[in-house]
Amino acid sequence: MTDSFVLGLSSGSACLATCGMVMFPYFMAGSAGVRRIAIDLFLFLLTRFVIYFILSTLAWYFGQALFSNPVVRNIIPGILYIVFAVMLVWYSISKNRNPNCPAKIVKTVNNKKLVPILLGLVNSLGFCPALFIILTKGATQETLVQSYFAFLAFFIGSSLWFLPLPLAGKIRKKEVLKNIGILATGLAGIIFMIKGLTNLIGGIING
Amino acid sequence: MDNASKIAGMRKSFGKSLLYTLPMFLITFMFMTGGKPNFADPASGLAILTAFLLVNVLYFFMHYTGKTDRYRAVLFIIFALSLSYTLIHNMLEVRKSMSFSQADILECKIPFCHLVIPMMILPAIFTKSIIFPGSIIGGFANISSMIVLWLVATLVLGRGFCSWGCFYGGWDDGFSRIRKRPVIKKISELWKWMPFAVLIMVTLSAALAMMPTYCSWICPFKAVTEFEQVTSVESVAKAGIFLTLFGGLVVVLPVMTRKRTQCSFLCPLGAINSLSNKITPFTVKIDKKACNECFKCVGVCPLYALTPEDIKAGKVSLFCSKCGKCVDACSTKAIHYGIRGIPAGTMKNFSRNLFLFVSFLFMAVFSAGSIISTFQGLLKLIF
Q1: A21 — contact with chain B (CB < 8 Å)?
Q2: Contacts of B123 in chain A (CB under 8 A)
Q3: Do A198 and B237 touch (CB under 8 A)?
Q4: Residue B114: pLDDT band by 50, 70, 90 thresholds?
Q5: B128, B202, B333, B205: which is closest to A153 by C-alpha?
Q6: Residue B38 — pLDDT band, cuts 50, 70, 90?
Q7: Domains in chain A: how many in total?
Q8: With contacts defined as CB-CB under 8 Å, which chain A residues touch B209?
Q9: Region A94-120 average pLDDT
Q10: In the predicted structure, residue B161 carries a pLDDT above the cut 90
Q11: Does pLDDT of B372 surpass 80?
Q12: Nearest to A39 by CA among A113, A107, A118
C-alpha cells in the first residue's frame, strides 16, 4: 500500500502542476463561496473514487486472466513497471513537458453542475504513466480486496494535492511547489523502476 | 596579509588570535580530558593531544588568517572520515561484520544517525513509537542524544548544521575539492528542490510503512557505514542503490562540479535544516553598498545557495549552510556573517567571531570522540 500511496502522492502533484490551471478556475468560477467549492471538490473526488473502484475491479480480473502463471506474474508486470516508470521519470526530467491537460475538454461544457464530475472523469482516466503503474499493480494482487486497497492508497495520495485547490489563489511560490511535485514524480518513477527490476530478476531466478 | 582580509580587518594579529583561541582551548581541553588528563595509556594520551592540538590550531588560523572555509573543511572532512572509521571499527568489533542481520534489528542494535530524524516525526506523533531499531538511551550512537544534539545545533545554526555538524557532509565536501576547476559548470536550478521532494516522499512513506525508508532504500552513506545483510534480490537492489548513489552523488559529481551534490540534491535532513534557516540567529548577509557584483560568491558556493539575482537583491537563499566559502571569496567583504536583526554591513567582526565560536565549538566537541578513537586506532595500527 505504501508504494501505491507514494505513487499517488507524486503523480497527483504532477497532475495538479499540469491540470491545476484548468481545474482551478472551474472550482473558483462565480466565487460561489467555500460551501459551493467544497461540494464541487467533493463531487470531483467522488467521481475519481468511483472510476478508480471500477478500474481496480477490471484490472484485477484482467490480471487473473492474463497472469495466471506465477513466473509470468512476476516477469510481465516487472517489464510493465519498468516501462511505465521510465515514462514517469522521463516526464519529470523532460524539458519539453507537455503542459496540455486532458481536462481542457471540460471547457466546452456549458452545464456548470456537470463540470466537477466531468473533471473527475477526465482526470482519473487521463491514462498517465502513474495510472498504468497502478493498473499493473492492481492486476497482480492476490485478491480483489488487495487491488482495492492499492487503488485506495493511490486515490488518497493523489487526492491530497487537490484538497487545497480552493485556496490556490492564496498560495505563494506556486512554481516551487510545482518543481517539488515534478521531482517527486521522478522519484516515484525510480521507486517503481526498482520494484520492476526486483520483480523481473526475482521472476527470472524463480523461473 | 591579503587585500581582502585587509579591507574588512578579518585577519587578526598573532597575539589577538591566541587570545580569541583561549576560550576554545579551555573548553575543548575540558571536553577531551574531562578536566583530568590521564597519560597512563600513551596511545590514548597521544590521540587526545593530537585531536586537541588539531582543533585549536585550526581555530587559531581562522582568526589569524581571516579565512573560514579552508580550516573548517579540514576538521569537517576529518570528522566524516573518522566517524566512518569509528562506526565500522565498532561494528567489526561487536558483530564482526559491516552488515547487520534481522536479529540485530530485533535487538535494536543499529547505530542511529541524524538522517533518520525526518522519518521519525509522523510515526512519533501519531503512534508514539520510534521507527528505528536503535538504542534510545545508552549504548553506541543512541537515539535521544543524537536528536538533542541535532535539535540544538539546528535551532542555533540552521542549515549551518550541514557544514559544521553533519558527520557525512565531509565526504562530498572533500571530494568537491579535488579538482581545481569544475567539468560540469551548469546544473538546472530545478534540482535544488529535490531534497524537499525526497523529504516529502520519505516522511510519508516511512509513516505508512512504519520503517525508515530512506535508511532502508536510499542513504548513500550505507556504503561507508553499515548495511543490511545481502540475502535476497531486494537486499542486492538496496546495496546497488547505496553504492550507486554514493559513487554518483558523493564521489563523481562533487569531483566534476566542485559542489556538494549529495547535500544539494538528495539529503532530506538538509531540506528541514534549510527551513530552520529562517529562524536561526546567525545568517550570512550581503552589504549591497559594498558589493561590486563580481559574482565570485555564486561560483564558489558549494550548495547552489547563491544566484546573481540573490546577490542583486541583497539576500542569501535558505539553502545556505554558512560554510564561509563565499565570505572568503568576496574581495570587498560585502558578503559576511551576520546576526539576525543587525543590518548588513555592520558589526561584521563581532558577528563572525561569535558565529565561529559557536559553530566551531559545536563541531570540535561533536567530532572529538570519533577523531580521538580514530587516532587511537591508527596509533595501534602503526605501533
Answers
A1: no
A2: none
A3: yes
A4: confident
A5: B205
A6: confident
A7: 1
A8: 2
A9: 63
A10: yes
A11: yes
A12: A113
Give the confidence band of A6 by pLDDT, cuts at 50, 70, 90.
confident
Q: A126 at the B interface (CB within 8 A)? A: no
Any idea which architecture B281-346 has in CATH?
A: 2-Layer Sandwich (3.30)
CA distances from B56 to A103, B25, B49, B62, B352 (A): 64, 6, 11, 10, 17
Residues of the domain holding A43? 2-206
Closest CA to A97 of A153, A4, A159, A179: A179
Does residue A20 surpass a pLDDT of 70? Answer: no
Contact A198 B233 (CB under 8 A): yes
- The model's pTM is 0.80
Chain B residue with minimum CA distance to A194: B237
Chain A residues near residue B200 by CB distance under 8 angstroms: 9, 180, 184
Nearest CA of chain A to the CA of B315: how many Å?
17
pLDDT at A133: 83
Complex confidence, ipTM: 0.76
Stretch(es) of chain B classified as CATH 3.30.70.20: 281-346
| Cβ contact A184–B190 (<8 Å) | no
**Cα–Cα distances in Å, from B373 out to A89, A160, B34?**
44, 49, 15
Place of cell 582551548: B25
Nearest-Cα residue of chain A relative to residue B236: A198
